[in-house]
């Protein structure tokens, strides 16, 4: 067996373990929390009072206007200077959540605004409250439109978690760096790490296609009923 292939086989288990224990949980938690934050932010910008709208806009402006890596450094390396100490994983989780929340809020805000005004009026005409109309009429229609951009955000997040290595989270990429430090084979190890990221992204892309098809059928069902 060629030495490079043996090296890849030997390092496969620790790389997959790092992906399973750190990369995937960090991605799932960050996206779930970020999506919730994005929904709250989007609703605040669309329907909130002016002070809340200003706060939401400022948050989105700051996060979208600064690099994710800088945000992680501010949280993990900067906050200790004012007495706020965070472990690596929670710091990365906060950073990714804030970042995802800002970007998904723009997606959610756009898809909610794209729902025709007549849908609101129809919901009110049958006695629904604002919250009922949002939950039962507006969000189901907006979700169908939001699936592709939100799925792309999720896939990008899988790859962006490699930046957590900069704040010492022992995820997939940092594990590859540690193996490189002992084997002195950066090309082979980094290609292997890239292939694992590619495999994860490919699986998620396939799931995205299936999800889009399912929502497309659901959308056709709604249009047939109306």
Task: Kindly describe this structure.
This protein is mainly alpha-helical and about 230 residues long. It has one domain (about 5-225): MetI-like (MetI-like fold, Orthogonal Bundle), CATH 1.10.3720.10. The protein is about 85% helix and about 0% strand. The protein is built from eight helices and no strands. The chain has helices at about 5-45, 50-65, 70-80, 90-115, 115-125, 130-160, 170-185, 185-225. α6 runs antiparallel to α8. It is flat. Mean pLDDT is about 95; it is low at about 220-225.
Could you write a compact summary of the structure shown?
With 226 residues, this protein is an all-alpha fold.
